[in-house]
Amino acid sequence: MNRSWKRFVSNRGALIGGVVVVFVCLVAMTASLIAPYPIDQRDQKLTPPSAAHWLGTDTNEKDVLTWVIYGSRLSLTAGSLSIVLAIFLGVPLGAAAGYFPGAVDQVIMRSIDVVLAFPAILIALLVMAALAPGWPAVIIAVGLINIPIFARQIRATTLTLRSQDYVTAAVAAGATTRHIFFWSLLPGLVGPLVVLATLGLGSAILEVAGLSFLGISGDPTVPEWGGMLAEAKNDLSTSIWPAIAPGLAISVTILGFNLLGDGLRDALDPRLDHGK
Amino acid sequence: MRSLLFCLIVSTFLGCGGPAVPSNILIYGRGDDADRLDPIHTDIGESVTVMCNIYDTLVTYDDETLELVPSLAESWSTSDDGLEWTFHLRKGVTFHDGTPLDADAVLFSLERLTVPMHPFVFDQVIPYVQSFEAIESVTAVDPLTVKVRLKRPFAAFLTTMAMFPASIVSPTAVKKYEGEFWKHPVGTGPFQFDSWNVNQQLTLLSFDDHWRGRPEIDGVIFLPVGESAVRVKQLLRGEIDIADNLPPAEIDSLAKNPHVIVQEKAGMNTGYLTMNNDKAPLDDQRIREAIWCAIDRDQLIKSAYSGHATKAVTLVPPTLWGSHTDLTDREYDPEKAKQLLAAAAADGVPTPIRLQLFVMTDPRPYMQQPRQTAIFIKDSLAKVGIETEIVTNENSQHFRRMTRGEHQLGLAGWTADMPDPDNFLYTLLDLDNINDVGGNNMSRYRNQKVHDLLAQAKVEMNQETRAELYRAAQEQIFADAPLVPLVHTSVRNVQSDAVSGYLLHPSSLNRLRLSKLAK
User: Fold this and answer.
1) ipTM of the complex
2) B492 with B1: CB under 8 angstroms?
């Protein structure tokens, strides 16, 4: 762990990523304290940045900075919840496929191949069409399209782990499957899972914003970055401010998660320990 | 068409940069495509825009005003009791397919609207059948004379003959294409149908033998382009000549461009907030009045219409006769709204009030920014203590669901099909028009007194007396507040300075016959 930490802090990209992620999370948590205006306050329509409105106002006469700040809440929450959903479904599937080669593995992995054969956005739209438009549907849709990513990686890691000597020893000692899963395999899965979840969060936030941009997220009076972009695109040629701010917020947040994820992968990679 | 296609292909391969069509063809960019081009089977504005250039009606509006002038009928007369109308048809008019226009063609076209189970009607959905319900029979007296007999006097009859469903279609073409006629429209109008690639391009070519003379331009191409921002770019690059349905702020900025002409005309339309009077707590007049008082319509006009609209007090727009312009408006008064809500709560209306607000996805002329309007209303109602949940539906679904009364609040509106108060008041608020299949009284307002007044006005022939009746009905409606009238908008159209001769018409019909192009 100590060595991992050293590798992490010596990676500048990872540090920057970490700072960005912490910053975005803090903004989301303290939105009601740091936002200059309440979210339903109206002033003037489509004004450029000024002292009163640092990032201008949007087509609904609302302060863009306030909306970007509040928007971080829903973007982060929806992104995290969908990743949690993907983990809860993807990890058991991947672990089962990796631990029980043969029929179970074949059925699970071939089904996942089928899912992967479709573009993610198409699956998301199908889910949205089946459920009523709204945030729960967005979260479920984004969760579902991320399941294959987790299942495949976890299966690969499980395959490696189960042929390790300590697992074989546990089997020889008569440990139950449940015991082996929780006490021998799971600890080894945590590292890759943390990395995957961090990287996955970045893409999940983008996917959530994408679905919201397409206008299928329900209530437009809840600040959210994708929805803000959708709102701003009609006035793009007259006023660019309402589009730039949420666009940058999405990019910077995703960059943060990606840098952090890459840094974590390098830091937590067990192979790097052997040489030292 | 083959030559046009050839030009298209050649210029595409040569990559000559400019728009890949002959220069004398007008290109009309719009948000959506037409649905069906059979006049009796559609009520979509995008289809009407195409059809009013393909077909003619017996009478039509003057090029600039709402005055009715001869079209396919050269003259007409009516019997003393107002029950029998005789139309004398213009000589020598032919359809695009060469069929001569005669009394039989007129009879055929009108009977498709009025005769139940007509053998050449291939779909039972006829949105405007109610408007022609007063017609008892149509007869061809001689090849150039048609008699229409009415069941009862009908003041707006001549105006209904100028409506697009009463367009005269070629009987030969209907018999030839049968159920596919809507894809192969044939009329007598200034432009003939050429080709239609759904959601890609719809092409009309000028009709050489039009009875008014061939239009100066060679044709019109309708291009559906969903994104308004793309239409703006195309207009500025000269790829389209006319761009319709743009967001107000966009039009304001285009108006500053010297190569762009913005036409503006007070429209005959009303945007309103429908309230489902069947559903609690909206069955309580005080709640409806409170919602009316809670919405600052002046601010809404600034915010969602860039100021290009006037505040509505009644459904009938002030540009139309019979509009009650002396009603004392309920001003924006959130305090009064709160008092009304408190009084209702004291009588047992459960609080807090939570309502669903139905919103359409795509703009309409009377609702140019539905999303922004919805957010504005939600914010306004929140201030007086009413919580709203915005429910967004794609346009056709939106209106279908509201017709079935699934909403509580909903954004709605109406553009006049004909310049008559009946078209607003009877259509949108009469108890006859509450049904699940096409009734436009989405507010489900039932008032016997209003119904009696409107029924009386329908058969009265004197316009002064009719106006009196409509004023009385509007007073009762104002008192009951079954819906909140929001705005009457200006219709604005954006065109490149190469286009001339094309005038926005108060009826909102986009007749392109007089357009000229200087490219």
Assistant:
1) 0.74
2) no
